[in-house]
Amino acid sequence: MAEYRSRLCEHRNKALELLASKGFGQVGMRELASSLGLTPGSLYHHYPSKQHLLLDLIEEFYEELLTTLGRVEQRPRSRQDNLQRLIHAHLRLHEEMPWHFRLVERDSGCLTQDQQLRVRQLREQYERRLLQMLGRPRRLSAQALQAAGHAIATLLNNAPSWLADQALDEAERTELLENLLTGAIERMLATRPSDRPSLQVAVA
């Protein structure tokens, strides 16, 4: 049984790569079954539709994000320290799960309405925990807080792709992304104008 699960997991990763690289709408159930090492009939037994497999992969993505937050939460520190650890954790996760990030960003809209509701609930749970860890600005309305959590999550999850095509070594890319994310998120979380980092322009 353990060997079977191991094989299924390996094939499942191939199905993930197939969906993420070709696009959800470009992959049929027969091709998915082949990538999973199953017959089409067996695939329908595991997943009644492509959307069910897509939802499973997206849920896996958010569960890993929440687990990542949990590891950071185990050793709470200052907001600045937490932010740096969150940035590093998200950059590392992007390297480990690149196909998940691509799939979630591009194909979540292919799910049914009920499935999209499930994904939205997971995302909102993740965004609320991000804000709790970073310290929620008190002067923002409930709607603005929700928007801030969404914006921070979007930055953390999309930033690694910003410089993917740039001729930078790994250290340079990481440092630049850290600086960009730190500046943007710290400014967003500032509660008063005096709290916000000032931009000093040198005058010749």
From TrEMBL:
Domain of life of the organism encoding this protein: Bacteria
Which positions fall inside the HTH tetR-type domain? 5-65
**PROSITE patterns per the UniProt record, alphabetical:** HTH_TETR_2 (PS50977)
Q: Does the keyword Chaperone apply?
A: no
Pfam families per the UniProt record, alphabetical:
TetR_C_24 (PF17932), TetR_N (PF00440)
List keywords of the entry alphabetically: DNA-binding, Transcription, Transcription regulation
Annotated Gene Ontology MF terms? DNA-binding transcription factor activity; transcription cis-regulatory region binding
Presence of the UniProt keyword DNA-binding in the record? yes
Residue ranges of DNA binding: 28-47
InterPro entries associated with the record: Homeodomain-like_sf, HTH-type_TetR-like_transc_reg, HTH_TetR, KstR2_TetR_C
> Where would one find the signal peptide in this protein?
none
User: Protein name, please?
Assistant: Nucleoid occlusion factor SlmA
Give the source species.
Answer: Pseudomonas extremaustralis
Source taxonomy: Bacteria, Pseudomonadati, Pseudomonadota, Gammaproteobacteria, Pseudomonadales
